[in-house]
Specification:
Number of helices: 10
Strand content: under 5%
Structural class: mainly alpha
Oligomer: single chain
Helix content: over 70%
Number of domains: 1
Shape: globular
Order of helices and strands: HHHHHHHHHH
Number of strands: 0
């Protein structure tokens, strides 16, 4: 057991991994975390120069900027911190570190999925909240606006269907897809995809990961097309013949338990990705 995992040894290695990743990616992490404030100050200055007014960017713009920054973080961090293990010199040095491969794997996943994204997103959102507390032209902070945006979007959808007289099962479906926690495993999966690409491909890591992701999703899309076509065909026929009964489709199992189906699917995908990452670490040679 000691050769597979040792908690003290793992703790020491995780600390060294944090220091190593900070040296390789710390500046980029800081820039991404501060990007919200940088964009805010830039918008204020542009308004003062061209319009003579002091007004910060709206919630929609800031939310888009946050999403873009977090996506850039997910794409670039694994390559900067762990892409070097596919190189002969750095990879050989990494393999020689006297730590179990299980511990290297856990440290890599924890850093990529939890520590770096949480630190960056937390810093970004806290600075946004402080900015909005100081400057009243900022409006609502991103932290407080997340829930209201989701509720408003799905509430608008509910209103549209309610006006068509189709309500059964819809409210439960909306309640499930409105829960932000439903999308946590999707974010984890995206982090794992680019981590796997960073340690599998030797060159063009990001581009090849995007290409592989596109090809795999295209194949899965072709496989799932008959199922999707069946449900949408059934929905279209029902909407044309009995529009007042359209909401009944949301009583189908796939809609009534959409959160369960989505969680099971994402969990299986994430486990497969982690298995691929562990296999790559275990079989890596130079």
């Amino acid at each position: 057991m000691n050769r597979i995992f040792n908690i003290k040894r793992f703790g020491r290695y995780l600390k060294s991994d944090i220091r190593s990743c900070t040296a390789d990616y710390g500046l980029s992490l800081m820039l991404i975390s501060l990007m919200g404030v940088i964009i805010y100050i830039g918008t204020i200055l542009m308004g003062l120069i061209f319009n003579g007014t002091w007004e910060g960017p709206g919630v929609g713009f800031r939310l888009t900027a946050f999403a873009v920054c977090m996506f850039v973080l997910v794409v670039t961090m694994p390559v900067k911190c762990y892409g070097k293990i596919t190189a002969k010199k750095e990879g050989s040095d990494w393999l020689m570190v006297p730590v179990a491969k299980t511990e290297k794997f856990l440290s890599m996943v924890i850093m990529t999925v939890f520590i770096v994204p949480v630190v960056s997103a937390g810093t970004y959102l806290c600075l946004d909240a402080i900015t909005c507390a100081i400057d009243k032209t900022c409006g609502e902070s991103l932290i407080s606006s997340f829930g209201s945006l989701i509720v408003n979007f799905f509430g608008m959808t509910a209103t549209v269907y309610s006006e068509a007289g189709a309500v059964p099962g819809l409210q439960e479906f909306i309640r499930q897809v409105s829960n932000p926690l439903l999308y946590v495993d999707d974010i984890i999966g995206m982090c794992l995809i680019f981590l796997l690409g960073a340690i599998v491909f030797k060159t063009g890591k990001t581009a090849k990961t995007f290409l592989a992701f596109f090809l795999i999703t295209s194949v899965l899309g072709l496989i799932m097309t008959p199922v999707i076509t069946h449900y949408f065909g059934e929905f279209a026929v029902q909407f044309q013949t009995k529009p007042q009964m359209t909401g009944d489709i949301f009583n189908l199992g796939i809609f009534r338990h959409v959160a369960l189906f989505d969680t099971i699917n994402d969990t299986l995908v994430n486990l497969a990705l982690m298995a691929g990452i562990y296999y790559r670490i275990k079989t890596l040679k130079h």
